[in-house]
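Hey, quick one: can you model this chain's 3D structure?
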Amino acid sequence: MTRNNKAAKDMRRIMTGKLGESLAVVHLQKMGYQIVAQNYRCLYGEVDVVARDGDTLVFVEVKSRKSGTFGAPQEAVGLEKQKKLSRVSLHYLQQKRLETCKARFDVIAVRMSPDGTRIDLIQNAFNLIL
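Sure thing. Here's the predicted structure for all 130 residues.
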């Protein structure tokens, strides 16, 4: 693969991810979530969306796919990603002094195809992993 082909492929992947995140935020808002932060970054990594669902703070990972070649979007949130999101969430809670706040992890799977877009919200997708 040439450098230009790789750059174009990377750009398509980034654009798919950004579109998926935008669609996910709209979906969360329709579900009654209040968006607190998007693309929260710290030295441990990044979480796509931090939101409130009632009295619970929710750390949301968004996974988007345009095809099923690499499996369902939510399958990309494996053990290592869960560990990373756990560390990021703990950092966020400590930084914001919210250690006693109820919190959970949700995953949004966005499937984009010529037939339309499907968005699945998986609440309590996994537990905190240290």
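One thing worth noting: The mean pLDDT is 88.
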